C-alpha cells in the first residue's frame, strides 16, 4: 500500500475482495479507521529497535532482583 490515504471506494473494494462486503453507510467509517491504523503502523515501522531481542527471548525469572533504590 502506498503512503496515499485510502478512499471510501477503495476500502469497499478491498473489503469485498476479502469476502467482507460493506453496506454503503459503513464505507467512510471503515476508511477512517483503516487510515488511522495505517498511520500508527507507519510510525511503528520508523522505530529503530537496534539490538532489541524479540519478546520470545525474554525470561522474567532470569532477571536481576535488586530492590536498592
From TrEMBL:
It comes from the Bacteria. This is Uncharacterized protein. It comes from Streptomyces albogriseolus. The lineage of its organism: Bacteria, Bacillati, Actinomycetota, Actinomycetes, Kitasatosporales.
Amino acid at each position: 500500500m502506498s503512503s496515499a490515504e485510502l478512499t471510501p471506494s477503495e476500502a469497499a473494494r478491498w473489503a469485498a475482495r476479502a469476502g467482507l462486503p460493506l453496506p454503503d453507510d459503513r464505507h467512510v467509517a471503515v476508511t477512517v479507521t483503516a487510515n488511522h491504523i495505517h498511520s500508527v503502523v507507519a510510525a511503528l515501522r520508523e522505530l529503530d529497535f537496534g539490538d532489541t531481542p524479540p519478546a520470545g527471548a525474554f525470561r522474567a525469572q532470569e532477571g536481576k532482583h535488586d530492590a536498592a533504590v
